Amino acid sequence: MEFDNGKQHQSGKFRELKLVAFFALCLILISPAEAFDPLDPTGNVTIRWDIMSWTSDGYMATVTLFNFQLYRNIMNPGWTLGWTWAKKEIIWAMMGAQATEQGDCAKFKIKIPHSCKRSPQVVDLLPGASFNMQYTNCCKGGVLTSWGQDPSGAVAAFQMGVGLSGRSNKTVKLPTDFKLLGPGPGYSCGPAKRVPSTVILTDDRRRKAQALMSWNVTCTYSQFLAYKNPSCCVSLSTFYNDQVTACPTCACGCQNNATCVTKESKILKEVDGNNKTRKSDITPKPLLQCTRHLCPIRVHWHIKDNYKDYWRVKIAIINFNYRLNYTQWGLVVQHPNLNNVTQVYSFEYMPLLPYQAINDTGMFYGLKYYNDLLMEAGAKGNVQSEVLMKKDKNTFTLQQGWAFPRRVYFNGDECMLPPPDSYPFLPNSAYRLPIISITVYVIFASVFM
């Protein structure tokens, strides 16, 4: 009987372990792990909504977008912010932004609202907007730099008058279902959450004004939501091997919405060079140069020189999309020797320290007004630089692919690397020794004979 009780006890423990494992597996499957970026674990876009004053039927609000991502820009044609009103709110007027649709405002006879849509979508104003429509940090066409690259350009704001909403903290209801396009899909936003009222400095910085009510919305990026396939790839070459490791075939998918054309195609003559992307066309259909990889962007890593105490790498970024310029592009590379970067030519460089103690990741971006714009495919559709790194003799080696990057990101999206077994290999000097010995032996034999 005691033996049977022991077996039953063990069986019960086994069932408990199976149950725990089952619940753990469920949590893993339903967790939003695809939105976690190991190189930028806290990166997000935060939307802050501040009610600054009450009006006769609602309030005046300031809405601010903060791009707290270390290296992911929001490029042209810019961000689009949408939400659903909790009641029957309307937007009377806006400064610094505009709603894309006015909606049905027929019931208003005298003063017509800016937007009557239950689920409005708001976009930034273009540069050069009239002065009476401008607001602080507005009018950049929706372009936001990353927080790591340029914090001053990572903020956008607009002001709006909201009506039919209530006139107190108890009657105002928080909007729901926030959506952020930047400029295409990829961001998922959480619910609006009340936060302590924001304290804002006046322009002369001598007085602090406090919002009457504030709430935040946090949006995180997932490359899996943005693209079914990678949007860039990496090729490799070295000074010690004639072999060039090209991007994998169909690295960015060969069955996608992209149109592939050759350099002599007549379609290229029809491309409007002055308006390659429009706000009404959030995700313009790519027009790519025909390649094996069919990627809009290729990053090439070339090991150029090997000195006694230093080594040099050349980095080139090539654009194969005939319809898109990349404004304020950013390239992130993970490599163990980036902790000893000595000099970077033609690019700006900033180390990224998501975990502080590990310094193996850095961001490269263009010099302002020089090469911060990556042009569309063609003769000018590339930017390049060289990086000089000091050797750590305890770790440095050119063998087994150590000198190649571990991860590469372009504009925040991870690029596809070639498989490790295809990397350019280091010539085996030990293999050449017998050949030299045989040659010397033949020469000596010929002399003596």
From TrEMBL:
GO CC annotations, alphabetized: plasma membrane; side of membrane
Keyword list, A-Z: Glycoprotein, GPI-anchor, Lipoprotein, Membrane, Signal
Main location class: membrane
Keyword Membrane: yes
Pfam families registered for this protein in UniProt: COB_C, COBRA
GO biological process per UniProt: cellulose microfibril organization; plant-type cell wall cellulose biosynthetic process
Subcellular location per the Swiss-Prot or TrEMBL entry: Cell membrane
Source superkingdom: Eukaryota
Domain named COBRA C-terminal: residues: 231-424
Membrane topology label: Lipid-anchor; GPI-anchor
Signal sequence region: 1-35
Family as reported in the entry's similarity comment: Belongs to the COBRA family.
Name of the protein: COBRA-like protein
Organism in which the protein naturally occurs: Vicia faba
